Structures are given as C-alpha cells and as structure tokens.
Amino acid sequence: MSEKELGKKLDRCLADSAVKLGAGLGLGIVFSVVFFKRHTWPVAFGLGMGLGMAYTNCQNDLRAPYLIQRNIKMAS
Amino acid sequence: MAGKILPVLKLATKVTIAGGALYVAYDSGLLGGSEQGSKVIGKAKAAFPPAVDEWVKYFGFELPAFPKIGFAPVEAWNSGVHSSISALSSGPTAVGDYTNQGLQYLKDLAK
C-alpha cells in the first residue's frame, strides 16, 4: 500500500486505540462500582478488553488484502 | 414481603445501570471498527466546545479563554521524524568533517 494510505491507516489505528481504551476503562469503572464492590480488577479487565479490540481492529485494517480498492473513479 | 423485594429491586437497578452503559457504548459506535472509532473522536471534538459553553452559561461564570496553540503535534510529527532520521544518516559524515576541520586547525596552530 502507498505511504499516504499507510499513514492514514496508522492514524485511524491510534485514534481507534484511544477510543477503545477509554471505552474499556469507562465500562470497567461502571462495572466495578455497580457489581464488584469497587475492586480494581474489573477496570484492568476492561482496559485489557479495549486494548485487545483496538489491536484486532488495527490488524484487520492493515491486513486487508481482499478488499477492493475504492480509489478508482467511476466514469460519470 | 418488602424485605424480599428490596434485594431484587437493587439487583434490577444495578443491571439497568450497567446494561444502559453498555448499550450507550455500543450505540455510539465505541465498540465498532476502526473507522467508527475515529469518527467518534471527531464527533466528540466537535461537540466539546458547545458543551463547555452551555455548562459555563448554566453555572454563570466566565472561564478564561483557551489559548490557541498554533502548533499541531500531529502535523509536526512527520517532519520531526524526517529531520531526526536525516540528521542520524548524515551524522557520521558530519562528525568526520568536523574532526578533519579540528585536526587541520591544530596542524595550522602547530606550524
């Protein structure tokens, strides 16, 4: 893939990782407070889930060999 | 009777809160693919200043104006990487040149 495309993918990866980590942290805190008597482990679990989701998304994004490239202009 | 209902009610409230948080996270695309995640960040950035303004009006005090930073780290990162690597790659040559210049200077002094 071209350098520009790679740059965009990496940017998307970073943004998505931040979102997923934040969501995991938030949900971990909610579950920890509501169900698990404010223990720390649900927060760590949520962070881990978020990290895992971000990693998988990045991996799928960077390894997309079967998607049709959409930068072909349609003849109008 | 009331003693039996209360724990069930507590559990139901907890499940509602946790389930609601999970649903909100799912619905706003926080748990989706890469593109959705980056769109969410864009939406949050766009929604942040009006939300801050509303809260300020509600509480009735003036926040100091946020200083406009004219430097965007995101845009400077690429040029930073580029300059660092060019400096590293031309490092040995530059060191050699400076050494030669220094030696020449010392030779001239010794003459």
Order of helices and strands of chain B: HHHH
Largest beta sheet of chain A, briefly? none
* Largest interface (C-beta under 8 Å): A-B, 24 and 17 residues
Structural class of chain B: mainly alpha
Q: Give the count of helical stretches of chain B.
A: 4
Subunit organisation of the chains: heterodimer
Taking the alpha carbons of the first and last residues of chain B, their distance comes to 109 Å
Give the CA-based shape of chain A: elongated
CA radius of gyration of chain A: 18 Å
Strand content of chain B: under 5%
| pLDDT averaged residue by residue of chain A | 86
Share of helix of chain A, binned: over 70%
Segments of chain A where pLDDT lies below 50 for 5+ residues? Answer: none
Overall body shape of chain B: elongated
β-strand number of chain B:
0
Give the averaged pLDDT of chain B, no decimals: 84
Q: Quick one: biggest sheet of chain B?
A: none
Straight-line distance between termini of chain A: 27 Å
**DSSP helix count of chain A?**
2
Subcellular location (chain B): Mitochondrion inner membrane
Keywords (chain B): Membrane, Mitochondrion, Mitochondrion inner membrane, Transmembrane, Transmembrane helix
Subunit structure (chain B): Component of the mitochondrial contact site and cristae organizing system (MICOS) complex.
Main location (chain B): mitochondrion
